[in-house]
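S1.2 Input.
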Amino acid sequence: MPDRAPQPVERQLPTEEARDLIALVRDIVQREIAPRAAEEEDAGRFPREVFSLLSGSGLLGLPYDSGFGGGDQPYEVYLQVLEELAAARLTVGLGVSVHSLACHALAGYGTKEQRAEHLPAMLGGGLLGAYCLSEPSSGSDAASLRTKAVREGDDWIITGTKAWITHGGVADFYTVLARTGVEGPRGITAFLVPGDADGLSAATPEKKMGMKGSPTAQLHFDGVRVPDARRIGDEGQGFAIALSALDSGRLGIAACAIGVAQAALDEAVTYATGRQQFGRPVADFQGLRFLLADMATQIEAGRSLYLAAARLRDAGLPFSREAAMAKLFCTDAAMKVTTDAVQVLGGYGYTADFPVERYMREAKVLQIVEGTNQIQRMVIARHVVGPESR
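S1.3 Output.
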């Protein structure tokens, strides 16, 4: 059996424009992202210049209105772009997903004046965003957040700490959820905070198991003054805004997970068809063939699931249940596929000379971010059997 080089994923895309877009992404991946991914991840280097390139190429605002600098692309297309980017380097794919999440509140709930003032720079002006919901004491229980915003004339004074912020310390703007009223979800409001605001500082980035090139840090708000013109939506509407963003964000994580899984499968197939044992390629052995077949099946199932959810979103139909299912299945599949890829490579898979050990470490975080997979199961169960008894 000859060595088998990985083939690009055959994508069902709705338009010729979408096909051209995927071709552009693959060209950028091959020239600018993939060749340096392993080295830069090992060094913990954040590729800001790549995000500038993606912005200049129109790839940071794909699902948003072209009237404000977006790409007018359906989620069905946008998510497949994320998958391509994540397959090359998760720091980039996840970074684009987080940026899109950070733009969601203003694009969906901002006034016409706010959108006209801020969105063009956010979507295509070279800026990079971050999303600030989690806190040291409120992760899964996001409605219990404690960061406060107090009204002072025409301004708000924000005080508190946010945690686990992707792009913390390097973002140009932050979408921040803060408490402006009563305890619980009804007392939360959304704000657009500049990255260079006085009183805003980032802690030393977390030392993570994977995604070392993507900075994750606490953000400290020490009396950060934000004009009321940067409040997004109504007072007390912030939690609803956050939940609507997370439904879309979960699809982004699902697509990134399938990208990482696809990269792991490609590496496993290349190795298995080239590695000789007992006088023939190890891919000839049934046990390994079945393992690769299961990996491929999980990837295709996950891709179909996230695309089905995306098409519901594009049609303006409810997709919260399907988004949770896609996030749950795709990230669990990525963890399984990347672990199996390490097994296919045997001892080599456990070394940093091959990328599958990095894929396995990166896949783990996808089961945690944008709502842990335990939270996804709770969301799905509520849709299936109703809310829990109190």
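S1.4 Remarks. The two ends are 61 Å apart (CA to CA).
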